[in-house]
Design goal:
The protein has two domains: 8-131, no CATH class; 134-192, no CATH class. 23% of the residues lie in helices and 16% in strands. It is globular. A hairpin with a 2-residue loop joins strand 8 (177-178) and strand 9. The chain is built from five helices and nine strands, in the order H-E-H-E-E-H-E-E-E-E-H-H-E-E.
Amino acid sequence: MYKIVFLREEKFRLKNRKGFYFEEYLRNPKDFESNLYTYLPFINILVHSSYWDFKYTSLVTKKMLHRITKHDQFRLEFTGDLSCDIKGSIKITHKTTSRDKPVFTYNPILKKYTDGYRSKGITDLAVDNLPAEMPGGASDDFSRLIREYVYQITAHGTNDITKHLAIPAEIRKAVVTQNGRLTGYSSYLKKYL
């Protein structure tokens, strides 16, 4: 089994196929297209967890999947759309699912959805409250991992965590609000408030 984490410049490209420029992507997202078509024939499982907005291009479209299924080497069996954007970045995500019924399957040849995973096609997991489903064991492990960070915060104070260089960058960037205001890393959340 191989795990691949795609970088932005691997996931997207300019429509004229000449590179990826992040600043340009943020200014003019419609000038870009997904580059995953290059990789999808070789992937068994695709897990998408990045932030996405409708102004950006989709990573995986139904048209893309329909074209790729004609290839003999097509392997994609499962997508985990952890962002759960309906008809968003992963276009086959047409609804959110629940813990009791976590998946549905999309058949790109028949262009048909079926609940469950027993049908032929690509099974999609789209449980929108999945982060809240963390079991107690995971919480315990997480607590052990952040213990040292808590000690560092206690030792250095909390007046301005985001700018305190003695506190690790992971913690500085994880702070969402400070003194009643969104931090710089979390300023994108203003539009949702």
